[in-house]
Specification:
The protein is of the alpha+beta class. It has 9 helices and 10 strands. A hairpin with a 4-residue loop joins strand 7 and strand 8. The radius of gyration is 19 Å and the shape is globular. Bound molecules: coenzyme A (COA).
Amino acid sequence: MIEKVEWDSEFFSRKIGRLTKVPQGKKLKNLIHQAHNKGYEYLSCRLILDKIAEIQLLEKHGFYLTDIGIVWEKKIIKNISNLKSQISNSNIREATGKDSPMLKTTVRGLFKDSRFYNDPFFTKKEADKVYQAWVENSVEDKTIKVFVAEKSGFITCKRLSKNRGDIPHIGVIPKSQGKGIGTSLMHRALKWFKENGVNTATVRTQANNSIAMNFYKKLGFEVKYIDMTMGLILSMELKKKA
Ligand SMILES: CC(C)(COP(=O)(O)OP(=O)(O)OC[C@H]1O[C@@H](n2cnc3c(N)ncnc32)[C@H](O)[C@@H]1OP(=O)(O)O)[C@@H](O)C(=O)NCCC(=O)NCCS
């Protein structure tokens, strides 16, 4: 019920795990001890918000809130020619490896609402670096398509299954926001999904990011569910209880 989060463990140089299912009462306490004995320094757990009893159990065992997420979904029903006309005026193209330095600059400071900035386990410096690493990896990752709006924004698209796709990240630099670039990037992503047989797109945003929520609503996304991410710093929690 605890799985190692390989990428995070390597990136933060600390063993990080994810609780995939919340066991009842004493079993959770034992699981936390086992995790500590196996060298885990941190555990996270993400639950859909209707699981209040499980959230309260996690709190009882020292887990704290790091993030409330809204998962949005959109059926891609428009035909490709319509989407094409909406992006024809903007300068959007596929990213290549050469765009990594530009993307790393673009991403700096854009995702301050994210859980990494609100979780005492991570330093602000680490939180800053994580998005730079993600965007760089996305360009190299064959399962992710990245589109860029020259020096002003980007969007990443990931195919989840035959029909479903996800937008892990979208960002427009502050001085270019509010000019329709985010909308054009999203239309480009939806067009790519449609061309590749994907007819349902999802995107997750933090509940404290009202600008992004308005943005997705305007683009026709609908709320699918709300989730909560909890974190537990193992060394601190066990020290407190000793
Ligand atoms: C969310 C984001 C990508 C939007 O990009 P953008 O280029 O500024 O968006 P657009 O100009 O295409 O705006 C489209 C719609 O979004 C909404 N919107 C955009 N900026 C807004 C703001 N400051 N306040 C309220 N609504 C806003 C509006 O409904 C707008 O439509 P309108 O111009 O007709 O009012 C951009 O704000 C951003 O990069 N934010 C930081 C990173 C981030 O939060 N990414 C999403 C993480 S899940």
